[in-house]
Amino acid sequence: MFEGCRELIPLSGLRLLVSFLILGLALAPNEAAAQKSNASEQITYVFKNGDTLFNLANKYLRKQADYFAVQRINRIANPRRIPVGKSIRIPVYLLKYRPSTASLSAFRGDVSIATGDRNLTPVQGLNVVEGSHLKTAARSFLTLQLEDGSRISLPSNSHVRITRLRHILLTDSVDYEIAVDKGRIRSKVAPLQKKADRYRVRTPVAVSAVRGTDYRTRVDETSGTTFSETVEGEVVVAAGGSLGSDRVVSIPAGTGAAASVTGALVKNELLSPPELLDPAMIQSETELRFAVAPRAIAVGHRIVIASDAGFVDVVAEVQEPGAVINMPSIPNGRYFVQVTALGADGFEGMPATYSFKRQLSTLGGSADAGDFGYRFKWFGEGEGQRFYRLQILKDSKTAIPIIDEAGLSTDTVTLSDLPDGEYYWRVGVTQFSSDPEDREAIEKWTDFEKLTVAN
What we know:
Layout: H1 2-5, H2 11-26, H3 31-36, E1 42-46, H4 53-60, H5 67-73, E2 87-91, E3 97-99, E4 102-108, E5 111-115, E6 118-120, E7 127-128, E8 133-136, E9 141-146, E10 151-154, E11 158-168, E12 173-188, E13 198-202, E14 206-210, E15 214-219, E16 226-232, E17 234-239, E18 248-252, E19 255-259, E20 265-269, E21 276-277, E22 288-292, E23 298-306, E24 314-321, E25 324-327, E26 333-343, E27 352-358, E28 364-370, E29 373-379, E30 386-394, E31 403-408, E32 412-415, E33 421-431, E34 442-445, E35 449-453
Parallel strand pairs: 12-13
Antiparallel strand pairs: 1-2, 3-11, 4-7, 4-9, 5-6, 5-8, 8-11, 9-10, 10-12, 11-12, 12-15, 13-14, 14-17, 15-16, 16-19, 17-18, 19-20, 21-22, 22-25, 23-24, 23-26, 26-27, 28-29, 29-32, 30-31, 30-33, 33-34, 33-35
């Protein structure tokens, strides 16, 4: 554009035209906004030998004419004569980029991935692009892995948009931005390698800049308040839409920030990790049950279960008041559980992580009189080989058993010769796993039941 003007306008006139253009642009209404723009929305470029704004624009700016904006922002009088070593600022939105990639690492339940007007079928390894909408329904989860190794995890009832998923050509840097419209996300961000690398999380009332952290973001559905919580590393949170505002706080690990719809920004310490009681207990009942050491400062707890230690493949989660949390049944296997305490201030605390074994093994029993004596019957659920043991004690639960039958493979025993009196009985089970590599057996008993015999 500029090169062609030289053939139509004398050199002296061209210089005069450029001067008027620069003056006019310097007085443009958006000049003040350009000067106040957040420094993190720009990159710094150092001029090398042979560089001009024109060839820089040709290689790295999205439009050739965008060099005018760079010239204005940096107050460059002559775009052809820029000293080697001079640093200039370039708005990121002007820069050329190639699309970066994200892939669906894991998902469970009812998840929705839409790009443009297309709804994509979730499959592991699915490529997810900039502009995609991700939604999870109740008891549904998904995890994305970005090109640099960072991960984004969505728990239940969440909706996010991938607003930036780019690799900037000039700086060879990543430019990621996630918008949380509803619910929560967990960002496990790989350490950013370059100064120009950017990972941001936006909500309707706040924006966060993240560098190499484990970080949670939640939008409260009732109040609209955004809660930001740092588990590892450090995050910068700003109320509103710009990190250049004066309402900015830094939240290192163990702290959080709450940004309200009014623009208020509050920083708090997160509750310390809770203690899970008896974490090595085999979860054998139909519902899983976790007990947390109670603390008066916690109004409830959140439990997340995953098949891996990195919590990529989340299989269940629940949030409950109190210190005892029950969860729906999950398949047998080895799992990891993460428990956090919920504060009265709305923040979720620091996590504690444990491993546990899930092997369903339930047991119940009954006793009644029949035509041929007293029938003892038992029942239960569980995969793998099961052997039963019947004990009957007379007069006391602490007496020596008068009947102790082990290794039973049937579910019924009938006794026809019980004398009159009071008896206490129970049945036990030894259950082996259906997994041939798991040699650990479960042993459990029913509670003692009282039986009165009067012939």
